Amino acid sequence: MNVEKSKSYISMTEAVRALKARGFEADFEYVDGAFRIAGSERLLKESELSIVEHHRFEGISDPDDMSVIYAVEASDGTRGTIVDAFGVYANPKLGAALLKIVMNENR
Q1: Given a cut of 60, is residue 53 above it in pLDDT?
Q2: What is the C-alpha to C-alpha distance for residues 32 and 104, in angstroms, rounded to an integer?
Q3: Cys-Cys crosslink for 94: which of 12, 30, 37, 77, Cβ 3.0 to 4.6 Å?
Q4: Taking the model in full, what pTM does it have?
Q5: Collapsed DSSP state (helix, strand, coil) of residue 42
Q6: Chain centroid to CA 59: how far?
Q7: Cβ-count burial of 89 within 10 angstroms (0-12 exposed, 13-18 middle, 19+ buried)?
Q8: Of the given ranges (11-25, 31-45, 62-76), which has the lowest mean pLDDT?
Q9: Is 30 helix (H, G, I), strand (E, B) or coil?
Q10: Residue spans per domain, the chain
């Protein structure tokens, strides 16, 4: 697979827009121990996903803006994003699940 080299983004909004334009169109949610494609009933295990790239944003003036976006690809080729806060607001269950996903970043 030919993946465009990732870049730095100024904001989460810019990153989401650019990743969607690059084909990461699905929105993944972590629900009941599995990843679900938003708007569907399809569930994926960590072993079915790989992290292609990630971007971390630190809120300079507002700690609520601290977040990470992960660009992921499923074993069937479905591409999308997972968003989590980091720091005190991070979802510990999501964080533990993300640690089980293979990192295939091309940086």
Answers
A1: yes
A2: 25
A3: 30
A4: 0.85
A5: coil
A6: 18
A7: exposed
A8: 62-76
A9: strand
A10: 12-103
Q: In the sheet where 34-37 sits, what is the strand order?
A: 43-44, 34-37, 26-31, 79-85, 67-74, 49-57, 102-103
The single residue listed with the structure tokens 């699905």 is 26
Tokens, residue 77 = 């080729």
Find out whether 24 and 80 touch, Cβ atoms under 8 Å: yes
pLDDT digits (tens, 9 = 90+) for 23-52: 999 999 999 899 999 999 999 999 999 999
- Exposure of 7 by Cβ count < 10 A (0-12 exposed, 13-18 middle, 19+ buried)? exposed
Please count the residues of the chain. Answer: 107
Rg of the Cα atoms in the chain: 13
